[in-house]
Amino acid sequence: MSPTTSETAQGGRRLVIVESPAKAKTIKGYLGPGYVVEASVGHIRDLPNGAAEVPDKYTGEVRRLGVDVEHDFQPVYVVNADKKSQVKKLKELLADSDELFLATDEDREGEAIAWHLQEVLKPKVPVRRMVFHEITKDAIRAAVANPRELNQRLVDAQETRRILDRLYGYEVSPVLWKKVMRGLSAGRVQSVATRLVVERERDRIAFRSAEYWDLTGTFATGRAGDVSDPGTFGARLTAVDGLRVAQGRDFTSLGQLKNGQREASIEGGGGRREGGLNVLHLDEAGARSLATALADTAFTVRSVESKPYRRSPYAPFRTTTLQQEASRKLGFGAKATMQVAQKLYENGYITYMRTDSTVLSDTAVTAARAQVTQLYGADYLPDKPRTYAGKVKNAQEAHEAIRPSGDRFRTPAETGLTGDQFRLYELIWKRTVASQMKDAIGNSVTVKIGGRASDGRDAEFSASGKTITFHGFMKAYVEGADDPNAELDDRERRLPQVAEGDRLTAEEITADGHATKPPARYTEASLVKELEEREIGRPSTYATILGTILDRGYVFKKGTALVPSFLSFAVVNLLEKHFGRLVDYDFTAKMEDDLDRIARGEAEAVPWLKRFYFGEGAQAGAAEAGNGDGDHLGGLKELVTDLGAIDAREISSFPVGDGIVLRVGRYGPYVERPTEVEGGTGQRADVPDDLPPDELTVELAEELLAKPSGEFELGPDPETGRMIVAKDGRYGPYVTEVLPEDTPKSGKNAIKPRTASLLKSMSLDTVTLEDALKLMSLPRVVGADPEGVEITAQNGRYGPYLKKGTDSRSLETEEQIFTITLEQALAIYAQPKQRGRAAAKPPLKELGTDPVSERPVVVKDGRFGPYVTDGETNATLRRDDDVETITPERGFELLAEKRAKGPAKKTAKKAAAKKTAAKKTAAKKTAAKKTAATKTTAKKTAAKKTTAKTAAKKTAAERSSANAE
């Protein structure tokens, strides 16, 4: 049994190391004076980021990979450059401690951080592993009293994953650099996630819509009706002469009726039957003629079928279901959800947020049941506690589900939380309490109505209803849906009380046209769900994966939908054709199984890594055959060694139609119409980076090709005779001069051509030679002030302005650059220079009221581009966002992500100034008995780390100075 706080205070000092300062601050308040709680600030040691970080004793491939693949895949670990001062601080704290508690998170990542801390700090005092899944006083004290040893299996499993991901990324990414574009990256899970998004877009491109029609009728019972027994209700046509009317589900993605289904004639109402799958495909004319024929029909109720309805509560949240619900209900991205959840956990409001488990502890069940009784009454409490079995394969059951912390749940109002933290806590609290409530029960009813049309055809309509007689858990919580048109569980549809044989009157019968829709793009929520269902990657990493594919430009957002870029099409095309096994869904899921077997001690890491990398023992484990294209014959090393078969142009080319090809070049996507001249360059036009691939039609490609693009000769400069051309560059349209071929382009005598960006009011198809010469003449000298200081008019990054020495003044219009007179310029300079912000510009767009701050949200034009703001929080629009098309939901999501990140960190310059001040303060606070040698050492240490430690025993001044560093 570990000593109590009072015993520790008397008998020694314990050092407790956690990951984050926020977590350290909360835990420190629960322990007492005998404990020192310090943060490692994440990982202190990792594989090197480049060869420069690798110790000199390593050479060859080890320097490139950071892993010695020839010697059992030994990793080379280095202390992160930005963590060296923190490691030094931890060592000094440990030197004054009698016991070390490693209190990092209780998962593979946390176990690995704890192991690295132990390896780097090399403690000579007892080491304990302190674990907990909630930060409450009782939980922390229980963790101190019941420590365990480091779990080496978890450490080995995490290390194997880290090595695997390093080999995958560092071997495959260079292939993308050579064959697609510099700066790209490949990853074991990120590449597979990107492939899912690309495949969905391919399905949308191949999709062909089908049109179908049906009828909707409004039927009356003849009674007045009320809320419980309505007098009218709607029903939809389901069959004509016994043939089912075709609906969207009856068509393929190519717009054809599915196999086994035959289209019946509207006139005859018949058609050949095949296995009872015949359907009637109504077109507009057929639907309208049938509606007319049914105008005076007498209808009767043919059948009433009633079934009991029962819905059980949803399981408590685990990581992925929390991300999905926060996306649906709160508009949070996966990354923002985890950032907010991290803060709630570290401040003691919820349990650990990275978990695969839906299990609640006995304490949590008791707390939830107590609140059910207190808030909703005993009628809503089931006789026995509810238990939820984990559905996730290889779930880390050591964790609980995500729930409010403590043995008594605080209601959202009791927490004192605000903003996004309040909203997420409320979501978690509601879901947890609801999980211990009774089922919702009711009835579902299907009514079929029939009648004969004036032309003799028999028509049957159907209506479905649902009534909830006891709401049960729905009083507390109802789950959202990915489909915005989906009906939620608590939605009732009441039908009138009718019986078979009752007569009904058709008040209105209308013909309705429909069209099948392409498969919906993934959202963050639905992609997380898809990855989990396919067992690809670990749920705790999904938020990071989504962030990576968005940041890398493989995917961008359109509203909440994830749209693949043309760049991702090229990357996935290369990986599918030449590294098929590495992006195969089943193979990637199998790798997860293998890694979990290693974690359980059922497999060894080194032999598995050898099979993956070198291809040894191709009959077992991770080296099983891939997708049949030959890439399973060797390991990863062999795959990335022979790149001769990869045609860079081919993998980055995609036919659009009519001979037009979309190509992904080094500077972005473009369309090309090949020339008939052999070896010649075809007609080309750039494609906007934010154009969704399924919108690139032949017609749009023709429009792009018809627009002026490329290089246009405007004419020779009258003074120099050099040709002036207009170009559409990577950073926008510009004009430049063409220098003679023998002009030196490098070295001391290099001559650069005059170049100028087009003004916002200009375009490539209207710019003239006169315009170009005026632009290239800038800056324009306006004149000199009375003191002889020259004033110039220029066009800069933030618009037109005047410059006099170091004093700049903005101009109102671009035209003023060429027209402003000296007198006008002097008048501007005669006015006091405006400090701070200029007068606020009117908003570009209004988006409505933010659900968190309850303040109006608008889009504004800022110094660095358009941004959304509610007056408290500002969030810059992303590359794929457009002022004209941005939705309120997208605006709210950007603000939520910005709030989750918290305030911006202070600049390095200020941090350096503070650091210097800290050093000076530390030096001043040293003991009065400073020797000359000590002073000299302190000065040298503050200026630069040098030799000169004169004694083995550190003085107070030396230690203070070292801590300040």
What features would you highlight for this structure?
disordered C terminus; disordered N terminus; alpha+beta; four-stranded parallel sheet; globular; six-stranded antiparallel beta barrel; 965 residues
List the helices and strands and how they pair.
Layout (H helix, E strand, L loop, with lengths): L4 H7 L2 E5 L2 H11 L3 E5 L5 E2 L14 H5 L1 E2 L5 E2 L2 E2 L4 H12 L3 E4 L5 H14 L5 E3 L7 H9 L6 H28 L10 H17 L4 E10 L11 E9 L2 E3 L33 E2 L3 H10 L5 E13 L7 H12 L3 H13 L15 H15 L35 H4 L3 H16 L5 E13 L5 E13 L32 E13 L8 H10 L8 H10 L3 E4 L2 E4 L1 H13 L6 H15 L5 H10 L21 H6 L6 H4 L1 E5 L2 E6 L2 E6 L9 E4 L11 H9 L4 E6 L6 E7 L2 E6 L17 E3 L11 H8 L3 E5 L5 E7 L2 E6 L2 E4 L5 H4 L2 H9 L14 E5 L6 E7 L2 E5 L4 E3 L11 H14 L6 H17 L7 H12 L12 H9 L1
Parallel strand pairs: 1-2, 1-7, 7-8, 11-12
Antiparallel strand pairs: 3-6, 4-5, 9-10, 9-16, 10-11, 10-15, 13-14, 13-16, 14-15, 17-18, 19-20, 20-21, 21-22, 23-24, 24-25, 25-26, 27-28, 28-29, 29-30, 31-32, 32-33, 33-34
Helix pairs in contact: 5-7, 7-18, 7-19, 8-16, 8-17, 10-14, 10-15, 11-14, 11-26, 27-29, 28-29
